[in-house]
Amino acid sequence: MRMNTKVSAVQNDSNVCADIVGFDFSDYNDADIAAVRSYWLQYGVIRFRAVHITDQQQVNFSRHFGDFVIHPKQLQEGGHPTHREILVISNVMTDGKPSGALGNSEATWHTDTWFYERPPAGAILRAIEVPPSGGDTYFLSTYHAYETLPEELRNAIEGRQIFFQSVYDKTGRLRLGKSEPTSTDFREWSGVVHPLVRTHGETGRKALYLGGTREGSWIVGMPLDESNDLIAELWEHTTATPDVFVQKWGVGDIVMWDNRCTMHRRDSFDPNTIRIMHRTTTSGERPV
């Protein structure tokens, strides 16, 4: 057993991601895990290139970063046949039904399950099969989004909270277990309130927290029109940044992101090609 770690990180062409070098998924110790965790917290996104591990190895590795969270899609079309911890992301159809979640469409900028009381801390995504083009994943830092806010905008959101409705998903589909609301005012629907600026539970740094959609979001206590304008301005500021890391997937690539301080999106791809990914998700704290 090694006493010292050989794990290191090489920063990519943005401030959001680094490649992890020297980590062996079949032979690692506590020091190796501590090094990976340190780089994950430093960069927000880390990547392992073409490591070709098994589902069980992914589950074992993920356990070092927190309890497992069952993603909502795992309760629908994205369940794994033998590993309940894994969300299958796939556009493959079997007997006319999806064999995984998300299909081949674009996924716009979001943090994962922002409508939870305790959104997950992290996600670990592994490429099983990838299309020849498309399906790229993009990441940005919400630390950076907060730290580069103009003073006027920063003052406008100081101490503010944001409400996210939890009845419909981003596509307008009723979420699992939810009923059609009787009110037309989404502020009266079931949902969750989080700080608009959250403090990371491990690093202590502040990050802008916009969830996953402008629609169905409200800055608590503001007139709705003013809230909509301010939220739109914050989204524009956050997503217009040129400092974005683009993951062009290769088979065996693994990307691990900190859901507390990043946002991500996915390109669409040709439905006649195949993209299969296996994801594990780890628990997080309630945003403060």
TrEMBL record:
One of its GO terms (biological process) is sulfur compound metabolic process. GO terms for cellular component: cytoplasm. InterPro entries: AtsK-like (IPR051323), TauD-like_sf (IPR042098), TauD/TfdA-like (IPR003819). Keywords: Dioxygenase, Iron, Metal-binding, Oxidoreductase. Residues 17-281 form the TauD/TfdA-like domain. One of its GO terms (molecular function) is metal ion binding. It holds the Pfam family TauD. The keyword Cell membrane does not apply. The keyword Magnesium does not apply. Belongs to the TfdA dioxygenase family. This is TauD/TfdA family dioxygenase. It comes from Sinorhizobium terangae.
